[in-house]
Amino acid sequence: MTKLFYSLFAVLILLAGCSDNNSTPKEETEQTEHKASQEETQKEIVNFINNDIAKVSAYETEANDELSTVSGDNYSSEDKLYDVLTNKVIPTYEKAVSEAKNIQVNSSELEPLKKQMEDATSTYYEALQLEKEALEKDNEELFGKSNAKAQEYLLMLKDYHEDMAKLAKKYDIDYQQGAE
To answer: Using CA atoms, how far apart are residues 166 and 162, in angstroms rounded to an integer?
Structure first.
């Protein structure tokens, strides 16, 4: 009986030594599924940045480029600023807000980032609306509120970029702020 025990023990050691992976078929399947899930999430994040957020960013850039033609060093009159703000900047920025709201995500990890982008674009849109109202009413207090909303937007955008950088790092994605 002892010889049989030692023989079985030797066979088990040999079998264990021949295996290059100590995981069971179930564990191997789980590892494969996890890797596939990671790759799907990684692809979704890249698509989110390069396509969805890029569309939002394109409208934001277009709106801000229009605004810069009549503000700062290019400011000439309130009438000109009001005209461009009302007829070009706000309608273009509405498209950015709409794009942000229409983004579809499957990954639960992208959901908060989508929400951050929605909130940020809505906040900047409010700043533009307040600026328009301030021009209509010639009201300094409304200009102040508009500027405060614009600052709030910048902080929200900063938080978004920080959170996106963390998520990108987790999924081994090269993310650079402003890449979208």
So the answer is: 6
